[in-house]
Amino acid sequence: MQSSLPSQPKGGPSFLVPGQRNSRNSTTLNKIHLQRQLAEWKRRALVAEGQVMIEQAEREAATVHAVLASREASILKYQLNANTRKKTDTSKCFTTSARIVTSAEGKEQAIAEASKRDAKKNELEEKKKKKQDTERADFLRRAEQEREQLPFSGSLRSKLKAELQDILFALGLDIEGNVAALLLRINAHFDTETALKQDPRYIGLFSKPSGKRKQAAEDHMSDPHYLLRS
Length: 230
Known about the structure:
The chain is an all-alpha fold. Helix content is about 70%, strand content about 0%. Among the domains are: about 30-85; about 150-230, no CATH class.
């Protein structure tokens, strides 16, 4: 009997002949070589592009420098020409308030204008003196209020500007500004320092002194220390 060789199972491993294996290796090497060449070309292209950008920037910088140099030259030329014109210009102008009066009417007009100027000057000096006198009176009044620690009373909105400034002065705040600004500053301070609304010196600004509050104000005014300060 002849013994039969076992048949190769289906789906088993396949083997390449040497020629086929060399062909595949060669194809793989060619692909790798082409990829390297492509990468090198890309690198060279990027380098070339960078050089082009650098050259373009240098050209633009040179253009800007040339424009600035041209402008500076124009300015220097203008200044030089202006100085030359000044040296060659022999005419001179003088401004004066003097007048040549040749008629009686002109003399009367000049006298009237001089009187008007003097009146305006006197008016300004009078306003300045009046302002100084008012400031001095305000200073003395506030000094007396601080010495006596006099209490304030009445609605804030009914106060005149000077009265609002007295309150601000007593609180140690800035007294400059119009009435609206002064009111805003006072209310903001009392909203922050709420305890001051119960202080005998300021309690009368927020309500009519009656009952306990009136008694507190009277006790404060009859306090020996308060009387000594008076």
